[in-house]
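We give this protein:

***
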Amino acid sequence: MTTLHLEHSAHTHTHGPDCGHTEVRHGDHVDYVHDGHLHREHGGHWDECEPGGHVAHAGHEHRHGEDCGHARVRHGDHLDYLHDGHRHAEHEGHWDDH
């Protein structure tokens, strides 16, 4: 999966462990869920950390939902579920890695 580099230039809030936004481990960094999208620190500024392309999570038999036990975060027009160190989103009958 590639990640798009979308600088969030108007972002004045500094994220951190006590900022009040949900932390999501994402590869080699931490994303912060804020205003329906994900921010990560990169090169002295904040980027929107969004996946590039469609990556289906093969073999994911667990059905996420309100009572599945995994944290949910708003991501644009849908909910992602935090599971096994990544985010899952329902997409056309399967689950995607975000």
